[in-house]
Amino acid sequence: MSENIPVESEFKKIIEALLFASDSPMSLQQLQAVFPELETPRKQEIQTVIDAICSDYQTSAIELHQVASGWRFQVKAEQASWVARLFAQKPPKYSRALLETIAIIAYQQPVTRGDIEEIRGVSVSTNMISTLLDREWVKVDGHKEVPGRPALYVTTKQFLDYFNLASLEDMPALQELEVLAIAGEMAI
């Protein structure tokens, strides 16, 4: 680290505090931008501190977890059901149609509304696409070069963050989902 950056333990505390206080995941670039220009740590220095913080929380009920948008503190899965009891609001319920639609977009992207309708076998309501766009789970990523130039939909970092994924490669394989559906453990 350069001489203007706080000693490692203080630097580590600063990074930990920034990640803890942030209301959304923070990328290495966002963490780097917090420091004055003359004190800016290298991304590798920040990553080294993040790795150390992750190690510190291994036996804790919370963890520092990487998602698509960056790093965030979150409750470990083992304690999530207990923490959920604190909140009066129940988690939002999503319709089967909405979940099918977002799954098609996630696994087949980029897709048009017509592609989704062909796979689902039913029409896709404008409200459903609007809901996905409003939640910022999907975005329009160009237009297909066919008559009418329909929009091509792809998932966003917010989608990955919501489902606790760092990238699309972290999604379960479609074959795994089909096995669960056949076993009756999940309806797809």
Which helices and strands appear, and what pairs or packs with what?
Elements: H1 8-21, H2 28-33, H3 43-56, E1 62-67, E2 70-75, H4 77-84, H5 96-108, H6 113-120, H7 126-134, E3 138-143, E4 151-155, H8 157-162, H9 174-182
Antiparallel strand pairs: 1-2, 3-4
What does this structure look like?
With 188 residues, the protein is of the alpha+beta class. It folds into 2 domains: 8-84, Arc Repressor Mutant, subunit A (Orthogonal Bundle); 96-182, Arc Repressor Mutant, subunit A (Orthogonal Bundle), CATH 1.10.10. The protein has 9 helices and 4 strands, in the order αααββααααββαα. The strands form 2 sheets. A two-stranded antiparallel ribbon has the order 1-2. The chain has a two-stranded antiparallel ribbon with strand order 3-4. The chain is globular and about 60 Å long. The model is unreliable at 1-7 (pLDDT under 50).
Question: What key attributes describe this structure?
Answer:
alpha+beta, globular, Arc Repressor Mutant, subunit A, 2 domains, 9 helices, disordered N terminus, 188 residues, two-stranded antiparallel ribbon
Series of secondary-structure elements, N-terminal to C-terminal: HHHEEHHHHEEHH
Helix fraction by DSSP (H/I, runs of at least 4) = 40-55%
- What is the helix tally? 9
Any idea what the CATH architecture of the largest domain is?
Answer: Orthogonal Bundle
Tell me the structural class: alpha+beta
Radius of gyration: 21 Å
Task: Count structural domains.
Answer: 2
CATH class of the largest domain: Mainly Alpha
Low-confidence stretches: 1-7
Strand arrangement across the biggest beta sheet: 1-2
- State the major sheet: 2 strands, antiparallel
Number of strands: 4
Considering the protein shown, what is the CATH homologous superfamily of the largest domain?
Answer: Winged helix-like DNA-binding domain superfamily/Winged helix DNA-binding domain
Strand % is 5-15%
pLDDT averaged residue by residue: 86
